[in-house]
Amino acid sequence: MENIIEVSDLGFAYNSESILKEINFLIKSGDFVSLTGSNGAGKSTLIKLILGELSPKTGTIKVLGANPKEFKKWYKVGYVPQNGLQSISTFPASAEEIVQANLFSQIGLLRFPKKEHRMKTQKALELVGMSKYSRELIGNLSGGQQQRILLARGLVNEPEILILDEPTTGVDDSTVESFYKLIKELNLKSGITIFMVTHDINRTTKYVSRTFCLEKGTIVELSKDEILHELAHKHKHPIINGKGDEN
Amino acid sequence: MEIFQYAFMQKAFVVGIMLAVIIPCIGIVVVLKRLSMIGDALSHTSLAGIAAGLIMGVNPVLGAILLCIIAAFGIEFIRKKIPKYSEMSIAIIMSAGIGLAGVLSGFVKNTANFNSFLFGSIVAISDFEMYLVAGISFFVLLAFIFLYKELFYVSMDERSARLAGIPVNTVNFIFTILTAITVSIAARTVGALIVSSLMVVPVACGMQFGKSYKQTVIYSIISAVIFTVVGLFVSYYRELKPGGTIVLVGVMTLLFIILTKRIMGKSLS
Predict the structure, then answer these.
(1) Residue B64 and residue B48: Cα distance in Å, rounded?
(2) Is there a contact between B152 and A97 if contact means CB atoms under 8 Å apart?
(3) Which CATH number goes with the domain that contains B159?
(4) Architecture in CATH for domain A3-233
(5) In this predicted model, what pLDDT tens digit does every residue of A103-142 receive, in sequence order?
(6) Which among A92, A97, A110 has the least Cβ separation from residue B207?
(7) Given A99, A141, A186, B239, which residue has the most CB atoms within 10 angstroms?
């Protein structure tokens, strides 16, 4: 199986404050990985490093075999941002426009979308069950539906990996479960690798294949048994037991 | 119609409509990037350029364009230096612009000419200025059409836009120049003190009706054109200042739309 994200001996510090130290993990093609940890544990910093917005102080990161700073094929990486709903819920755009925006690399600079791009947009909306809302103003949709639109935007380029940063923040509780089911379905049917940052380990455990926990700047991989044991006995990892800071 | 017998009014309509088309194009991006105050900062700074132009004997609009471009990049520079308090950059440049305009205005011999820029003088536009507005409007409109999808994505989510391959810094750079030159030429017509209203009010109206980004842009342009035409008519027949009248027509229309929607919403529920 192909290596999708490789992180070796990664260290990062803001000024002299160490945020991440000796981080090692490997995400392979087809994995469904969740990353959990309390606020300030360094999850957002790790995402920024993977997306090439920050440079590691020590160690290396490889995304699809390349250093993120030199990586050019970002269309192979689907991304669903943290607090994405905040930025789009008041944005005067239709679902279709929001999804199509991500086809930039296929449409090209200073060019206009063609029929094939509109078809790809429809396909991505169908994949998340939102095709009948394509002409709807995003602000008229529910939080759960808006999150599906963001997911369709991340999927429209048929990426190899989908990175989701706390995707259920702001989504009402009743639709969260169906959102996770949808991600799992994409992972199984389309074979897309999933890397999801979440606080919601209680609910995600049954869907993911691997769970990483980031605490005090270091990362540990937890087995399903460990998570279930922790959930049952409520000690050691406060984040697992829902005692971590909520966003 | 009597109003169209005068060449100055014909010019006012031509220039007004051209500006009404391009100002909302810039305005929608400014509003969606939550930078509504940038128009104010640039238009106030343009006064310093106008004063400098009048002192040096060059066309004041050209002076305004030059200083606005410098100010726009100044805002971007300060924003990057203090990202946590980025809104301060607008206040700093606006203060510097007003300060400079205040000092330079003391050296302007023809103060009436300088004052005409405060509230605009669309009916006193020279042929050169009309051609300048036409050229710049064409350039801004063309840039907006070709950068339509790039500006849309950058306004919505810069990080995702960068990941999608959009050269975000270049797009922002071009947009900064477009904003600066649009504000400068608009300052001459509607006035430096109210140019940002014309940037925001039509967009606010467009957002009341638009069911998509494209529709919002189109409705914003239509609103701006209507405000300009109605404003010019009202100002001509009621002998009012055109710049202020255009903006007031826009604000009253916006209030009417918001109130009507609220009343209709209540009666439906």
Answers:
(1) 7
(2) yes
(3) 1.10.3470.10
(4) 3-Layer(aba) Sandwich (3.40)
(5) 998 998 888 999 999 999 999 999 999 999 999 999 999 9
(6) A92
(7) A99
